[in-house]
Amino acid sequence: MNHGELLKMGEYNHLSIEGCSPDIIRCLYRFMLRLRRCQEALIKEYYPADEMRCPVHFCIGQEASPAALSLLLSQSDYLLSHHRCHGYYLAKGGSMNALFAEIYGRATGANGGIAGSQDISVHDLNFFSGAILSGSVAIAVGVALGFQTKALRSVAVTAFGDGATDQGIFWEAINYAVLRRLPLVFVCENNRYSTYAPLSKRQGKENISERVQSFGMNVKTVFGNDVALLYSVFSNAIEEAREGRGPCFIEAFTYRWNAHVGPGEDDYLGYRSVAEREFWKKNCPIALLEKQMVGQNLMDSKIKEKMIVEIDQEIATAFQFAKESPFPHLKEWSQLNYNIDTPQADRLLETIDSSFFDQNQKEAMPGPY
Amino acid sequence: MNHGELLKMGEYNHLSIEGCSPDIIRCLYRFMLRLRRCQEALIKEYYPADEMRCPVHFCIGQEASPAALSLLLSQSDYLLSHHRCHGYYLAKGGSMNALFAEIYGRATGANGGIAGSQDISVHDLNFFSGAILSGSVAIAVGVALGFQTKALRSVAVTAFGDGATDQGIFWEAINYAVLRRLPLVFVCENNRYSTYAPLSKRQGKENISERVQSFGMNVKTVFGNDVALLYSVFSNAIEEAREGRGPCFIEAFTYRWNAHVGPGEDDYLGYRSVAEREFWKKNCPIALLEKQMVGQNLMDSKIKEKMIVEIDQEIATAFQFAKESPFPHLKEWSQLNYNIDTPQADRLLETIDSSFFDQNQKEAMPGPY
Amino acid sequence: MTQQTYSKAINQALYQAMELSSNVLVLGQLVDYQSGVFGTTTGLVDKFGTQRVCDFPVAESLMTSTGIGLAMSGMRPVLVHQRVDFMMYSLDAIVNWLSLMRFKSNGKLSLPVTIRAIVGKGWGQGPQHSKSMHAWFAHLPGLRVAVPATAYDIKGLLLESIFGENPTIIIEHRSLFSMTSEVPDIPYRVRFGEAVVRRKGKDVTIVAIGFMVPQALRAAEKLALEGIDAEVLDLRTISPLDEEAICNSVAKTGKLVVMDPAWKSIGMAAEVIALVSEKMGSNFKTKPARICYPNSHTPASSALEVEYYPNETSIANVIRSVVYA
Amino acid sequence: MTQQTYSKAINQALYQAMELSSNVLVLGQLVDYQSGVFGTTTGLVDKFGTQRVCDFPVAESLMTSTGIGLAMSGMRPVLVHQRVDFMMYSLDAIVNWLSLMRFKSNGKLSLPVTIRAIVGKGWGQGPQHSKSMHAWFAHLPGLRVAVPATAYDIKGLLLESIFGENPTIIIEHRSLFSMTSEVPDIPYRVRFGEAVVRRKGKDVTIVAIGFMVPQALRAAEKLALEGIDAEVLDLRTISPLDEEAICNSVAKTGKLVVMDPAWKSIGMAAEVIALVSEKMGSNFKTKPARICYPNSHTPASSALEVEYYPNETSIANVIRSVVYA
Ligand SMILES: Cc1ncc(C[n+]2csc(CCOP(=O)(O)OP(=O)(O)O)c2C)c(N)n1
Ligand SMILES: Cc1ncc(C[n+]2csc(CCOP(=O)(O)OP(=O)(O)O)c2C)c(N)n1
Ligand SMILES: [Mg+2]
Ligand SMILES: [Mg+2]
Q1: C126 contacts in A (CB within 8 Å)?
Q2: Mutation test of the interface with chain B: which of D30, D292, D301, D307, choosing the one with the most B Cβ atoms within 10 A?
Q3: Across the interface, which of C136, C271, C288 has its CB nearest the CB of D270?
């Protein structure tokens, strides 16, 4: 599978909700709709309010993957995301209030206004993101190694874009995950672009999954706007990882509708074709699911209306919360960067009052290596 | 192909010199014998002389690959090597005198005693090496890009061990070489170990070439002690690269007889099996070739004797040269680290006597990205 | 000679360098799009093509190694990083190869690699988009480091670096990109190791680096109204450092403030103070001071940015305290 | 309390840490072989197994990220680099993630990652095996940096780092590995930010770091014969820095020499001098001085190593010049 082939496909008509319980389908739908509306609202408010003073990477069109994960991870599982992290933050149970407040740079933000949109990291949620490409993919390896060492049944999931696979450290991570059979699921949202640069300009072959597979990794490639499919594929992968049967790499083909960064459009740069955008808008993950749900009487305009009212209420509350929250104030930078407490050392180590050193020793000449 | 399978093979009996001119065969043989004897002599002298005060990575057992390259590269081609570089240095036409003098830390050394064994780099020869793993592999990409930009018919060759393929930057290099179809030949001497750690402890799958191939690279795996085979494979790859038909990756399975570093043995650490060592010693690249040559009357004890006398004379001369050479002396560190000349800038740029700056401008508040 | 912005001056320097020599290449993410890394590379690809204006994969580590190899093969590459932060992936190549090739080749091979690295500030750049790290590069032997503050200097230093023979890192502060100065149209040079007195004064020496230069000048103007006559020295390059210019000025004023847009500890500001101490011992009339960022990463919230970065008031206060101590 | 080598003290600290807590892991190339990274990890695998004593692929970049992830999941990893030089591949992880996680999490998450990094010297280590880079790490906010000079200190600081809550880099100079001091058998702590006076004196303050400490002490002994009574202060950790101890000593002696096993410019030695200048202004009795390496990479030839590294004579000369200026 690759973007070029998908483009020839027209409207995707493989999406099926058979075998998925209505409850789950409704949850998936609701998550996507909520994420979409929340992004749209932020976009609308970005410039007029002029209070969201940080770079924001919106994820309109890419709601399916976070939606699927939102139902599959427990609190003790870890989710590590790239810069385009709002969906994943919500998937891990992050509150919309704290998200908005973080973007507004307020003290009540998910990170107290310190991190901004692209670095949201909340220890209590075991959710982490960061702006440096591939960084959190590599860190996820360590989290999974920790779980394995402690023989926990937790799983680490790391979500990232195709851009992350340009970096060498990504391949180090793939290799090590296979070598140690780590409880780690890689979710690659391949939206074809790293900022404006298409995959074909950055990689010698458009076959990320094939390459990952050659490292001995289990891989799956899926149409990333089919949320029901993602749900089942993620579910299997997470289950396998949890059972100690090793890592999995899932490549989800999807598309970013909006600009790479910020609330505007960047299509005027001419880096992507109209046909491509049209294809993907026609295959909106929410609309595709809605069609199936309507067909099976799981959705009608009344239900949808009600959902929208609830969601919009949550969004309005979040804006209000953010705007009314105080800005952070700091006098003491040191403690934010260094922890001065040493509870473990206090408990485990002795304090001694002495130090002897024979100052007349000569340095050693080490051997050849 | 992998080391495990090879081990079951017994003595290698595919080596054939058919189709190779006697002159070339003799040169290959002579190069290997010279390299072997030069290494052996250095090993013997290392501790007694106690004057080779730098880490040295000997390459006994791995003479075939440098031998094959020695006949295929012109002066304007570049050869970039890892730490185990003596063979490659000689292959690029480096003098034995300067090699020995460098190891002895003398002013007459290839690098004036500055670099030591593992960093020998001689611009006049277009030969470079360095101790940091994978570094020179990545740099070779740039050299090849330079050739391509200038539309030269030169080729860059980079030689390295299996250890280099652990590093992420190696995979970045493979990807980019394919993407740009660079005139670049990768020579991986897979001797199964990075120091003491076998491949199976470092990589999830023992299939370096398969993985490289999945990036879209042309690959060849060969028994690395068959010098005639290496010669023909390298020759093809270099020719293809020279003709603008893109890069190639060659994995040569071979084995290091001696310790990872230094003149001693490190087998007492028990990291490799006796059977394995025996297998590889039985398949000595020099002995395998000699057998073929004897069969075809290209070699007899008289010819060999004569070669040995010549080689040993060269080695004796090199020792004498090194030992009699002066040590370097330095007072001025700055010029060794910085070039104070600016010939190009002098020629191309104007000197102006002015600078205006409106100090009342306010800094800009950049946008979201 | 026309009034030009900093970013346009960069663009012009690159254009002229590429015209002057076919050995000059520009590599970096998105250098060949119309947006052109904040306008600094816009239009280059139209004139020089994609072989010389190379959009690079998101593989900063390889990019630097590629630059090294290019220079080894006789080219003069310019590498562009949208943020210094992204360049951290390439530090092995910088530390273990780029900075020491001349040394290890016994002075035989120099690598004219120019690395342009941009520092973010404001609009919530946060901890992964605002680091400067110039002290790191200047600590390392074998590299030249420039921190130009004006459009005039960035053009001249960029050209000097491209056609010089040493690997060079040029730190470009994003907040300077829209500032203008008189910029000659011809390709000209600004030499490394030559600081410039931007304002003459006798009461205190303000040594300023990069982005701090306009702030130092504004502070000096303000303090002039109070009768403090500050001398402002713009270092322009920090490796090599114009030690003479620094010592000459302090010899005159006896008082020293160093303004460095970086973390305070173990940075350029410490070096300048140490240098003057070593050379002039107890000839300070008052205690010297540093105006830097706190030893802390950068917060994203605009409210915290205001507290993090030195501002007109805090800068003036420190200068006053040194003058009147 | 027994007399022990520096390397054995490291080994003991690791052993005891792993015994004290199952959260402690050791990761590094070849840590599970009998040779054990110059004996420092020998035997650990026999006791604790390969899940806790992990031989790592030659992928230093990933190794550091793995350490970060381990700490995020509640572990206390110790990463081992045979040379600081090899660690350069991992600087992105250190700069963009390790050092700033506590900050960006708004103080909620600390990462107790300990990085042991060894510095080579002698026997032709050359430019790619002998860098120290401790000034870089100390410049960066969010990291603790220790440069222990004695077996006693390395054990205590290693344990303090493993069971402390901050990411820490411990620079271990290979030439110290065979030096001995009294080392208590129990697991004890040496706190960060506490320098120690290794020799009391009144004529000059010698602030020494790491590998320079034994050399400072030997120089002081030698100079004592000439009637110079030097005070030697061993910083032990450079981030945090014991500013008080430095200022107290210089307040007493009025004269300062800083000995730092690193390149001279923009290093710890500059910081110490700048610090004293800022605090004490013109109270120096003579010009302070730095004893460091030249601003040059390290040559391999033993003949050049002798000229590169400060030696007993050159050290004594500088100290004399500061005392008698
Ligand atoms: C190391 C590094 N280099 C460059 C960047 C600049 N950058 C930010 S987002 C981005 C594109 C990422 O593309 P991808 O990973 O596919 O994610 P997407 O934005 O498409 O969701 C780039 C190059 C960065 N953040 N980190
Ligand atoms: C970045 C880096 N990490 C670690 C080392 C230490 N080291 C030196 S040689 C070596 C093993 C290399 O193995 P390989 O690349 O297979 O080459 P071989 O020695 O087998 O010829 C290692 C790990 C290094 N030189 N560079
Ligand atoms: Mg993408
Ligand atoms: Mg090997």
Answers
A1: 54, 114-116, 118-119, 131
A2: D301
A3: C271
- Return the axis-axis angle of helices A285-295 and A227-242, rounded to nearest 10°: 100
Distance C34 CA to ligand 4 centre (A): 46
Q: Is C23 a member of any domain?
A: yes
Clarify whether residues C119 and C233 are in a common domain.
Answer: no
Looking at D134, D153, D183, the residue that finishes a domain is D183
C158-187 confidence digits (pLDDT tens): 999 999 999 999 999 999 999 999 999 999
Give yes or no for residue B358 having a pLDDT over 90. no
Strand segments, DSSP code E, in chain C are: 2-5, 24-28, 53-55, 76-81, 114-119, 144-146, 168-173, 180-183, 188-189, 196-199, 204-208, 230-234, 237-239, 256-263, 289-293
Are C176 and C205 in the same domain? Answer: no
Whether omega before D184 lies within 30 degrees of 0, making that bond cis, reads: no
Residue A340 neighbours by CB under 8 Å, 6+ apart: none
Contact B349/C189, CB-based, under 8 Å? yes
Kindly give, in sequence order, each residue whose CB lies less than 8 Å from that of residue B74, ignoring residues fewer than 6 positions away. Answer: B154
The CA distance from B70 to the nearest CA of chain A, in Å, is 29
The pTM of this model reads: 0.98
Predicted ipTM?
Answer: 0.98
Compute the distance between CA of residue D268 and CA of residue D275 in angstroms, rounded to an integer: 10
Provide the residue ranges of all domains of chain A, joining segments of one domain with +. 3-333
What pLDDT does B50 receive? 86
Claim to verify: residue C214 and residue C169 sit in the same structural domain: no
Q: Do D239 and D208 fall into the same domain?
A: yes
- Give the chain A residue whose CA is nearest to the CA of D57: A176
For C148, the domain range is 2-183
Chain D, window 146-175: residues with a beta carbon less than 8 angstroms from a chain A beta carbon? 149-153, 156, 159-160, 163-166, 174-175
- Expressed in angstroms and rounded, the spacing between residue A195 Cα and the centre of ligand 3 is 7
> Using the beta-carbon criterion (under 8 Å), do C135 and D266 form an inter-chain contact?
yes
Rounded CA separation C161/B349 (Å) = 11
B320: tokens are 């004498």
Residues in chain C closer than 8 A to D64 (CB atoms) = none
- Summarised one tens digit per residue, pLDDT across range B92-151 is 999 999 999 999 999 999 999 999 999 999 999 999 999 999 999 999 999 999 999 999
Fold observed for domain B3-333 = Rossmann fold (3.40.50)
Please name the residue that has the structure tokens 């989290």: A143
Q: What residues of A are in contact with residue C303 (Cβ under 8 Å)?
A: 105, 113, 327-329
pLDDT for res B366: 66
pLDDT 10s digits, C67-84: 999 999 999 999 999 999
Shortest CB distance from A205 goes to which of B216, B261, B369? B216
Calpha distance B250→B212 (Å, rounded): 10
Question: What contacts D181, CB < 8 A, 6 or more positions away?
Answer: A355, A356, A357, A358, D3, D4, D150, D151, D152
Count of domains for chain D:
2
Concatenating the DSSP letter of every residue in A270-318 gives: --S-HHHHHHHHHT-HHHHHHHHHHHTTS--HHHHHHHHHHHHHHHHHH
Which residue in chain D has the smallest CA separation from A173? D62
B74 neighbors B123 (Cβ within 8 angstroms): no
Cβ-in-10-Å burial (0-12, 13-18, 19+) of C99 comes to buried
Helix (H) / strand (E) element for D26: namely: strand D24-28
Ligand number, closest to the Cα atom of A61 = 1
- Do D144 and D240 share a domain, yes or no? no
Sign of CA dihedral D92, D93, D98, D101: positive
Q: Is C191 contained in some domain? A: no
Nearest residue (by CA) to ligand 2, atom 18, is B161
Residue whose CA is at the smallest distance from ligand 2 atom 21: B161
